[in-house]
Amino acid sequence: xxxxxxxxxxxxxxxxxxxxxxxxxxxxxxxxxxxxxLVPIFHDPDDxxxxxxxxxxxxxxxxxxxxxxxxHVAGALLxxxxxxxxxxxxxxxxxxxxxxxxxxxxVRTIYRARLFERFLASRARRGxxxxxxxxxxxxxxxLGALQFRAASGAAVRIVSRAHxxxxxxxxxxxxxxxxxxxxxxxxxxxxxxxxxxxxYLAGAFPALAAKFHVARLGVHxxxxxxxxxSGGPLEIVSCSxxxxxxxLHLVVDAIACLLAADPAxxxxxxxxxxxxxxxxxxxxARARLGARAQAVFKGYLTPAELRTLYREESFDxxxxxxxxxxxxxSLMEASAAGIPMVATDxxxxxxxxxxxxxxxxxxxxxxxxxxxxxxxxADRRAAHACRHAARAWWEVRYDATVNYALFxxxxxxxxxxxxxxxxxxxxxxxxxxxxAHASSRMRPCTRLxxxx
Length: 452
Description:
By secondary structure, the chain is α/β, with parallel strands linked by helices. Helices cover 37% and strands 14% of the residues. It is built from 14 helices and 13 strands. The chain has helices at 22-29, 69-83, 87-94, 99-125, 141-152, 180-186, 195-204, 249-261, 278-288, 303-312, 329-336, 367-375, 380-397, 400-411, and strands at residues 5-10, 35-40, 132-135, 157-162, 189-192, 212-214, 234-239, 267-272, 293-299, 317-320, 341-344, 358-361, 436-437. Helix 3 (87-94) packs antiparallel against helix 4 (99-125), helix 4 packs across helix 5 (141-152) and helix 8 crosses helix 12. The radius of gyration is 23 Å and the shape is globular. The termini are far apart.
């Protein structure tokens, strides 16, 4: 039976277009808690929220907007300096090169934590009880929740997920995450979305390793597998925001390399997603690709719309050439539909792409290596086993119904903290197919047509 109140702290959700997979998680959490409230830490007052079944409390994010923002931030910083232990971190920062970036990170952490502590205190004064505070990201606000619990004596459990940019300190501007040790020392449990993330935390904070668990994300069954092309051009799909870190220009360059190497080949590339470099990417594709290549830009699609695309259109392979990742949900969506994958070996991508279901290429793969990996799927008969393996791997690791039910149980109490059962490390025995780990020793693109 559902019991208790869950406060779920997001970055923007239900505002904006990000965090699209929170909705699937909420479906399972609603079966575990009587009441769920959403608290975005930021929102644009001009944005319209997506429809949700749960109340949204804007009391915290409202402090970060408007004419009183500077007053709120300054007051929170001054009182936070008196309440939180930050001197050890300051000493560390002063010994590093990136002093300005890291001082900014420390200041931001202190004032955000204090603002959130005040927000929770105001809720408590109104008699608004909460049993679990769940942070969707590893955020500075966690420290404020910990201080609120210590000061008030509230019997509240405080937990967080950890993904990629929020987790890995080397992705911060100065390589420092504000008051990270204090946050991890006080929090009850951290649920990493990958084993890679858990190993990272356990290696950095071995004395706290018992708090770190793996709770995988997941996507829903699309209802029908991608049927795969029976003829025509090589059908490539990619799905990401169009930002520098996704390196989508390399996809364009790899397609150009394929076309130059194989005069008989035609390619159709479909990209899903938008972002600040969207127009630049389209212009680059027009300039770089010839008549044998077609580039289709779908723009932003919701998860439901993406599942429809995978049901209705045929694709040979999905490609992801990001320079960093937590674990790419776009690959989970493709895997659920039975689409083989090519991805750079960054973050936890190796936990979803393996020798049975695709090609894992080096993080610094050059254009010929990317092209060679994609060209493997031009042989559709050989790639058939990869399609079955991709779907099998989704069933083992990334089924939203299974994963979020386990996670909901884990949030139910300390006794179930590690209830998110992990899949075995072994890859599905689906044959060698077209999958392999690509390396820089692959033949250059000028020889791909020689039987590669």
